[in-house]
Amino acid sequence: MGRGGYNGEGVLTDPDVEGSSIMLVIFGIRVSEDVLGVVRYVCETCGQEGAHQVLRRRRRFTLFFVPLFSVGTTYVDVCTWCARSRELSQQQAELATRELR
Ligand SMILES: [Zn+2]
Question: Is there a contact between 87 and 66 (Cβ–Cβ < 8 Å)?
Answer without folding.
Answer: no
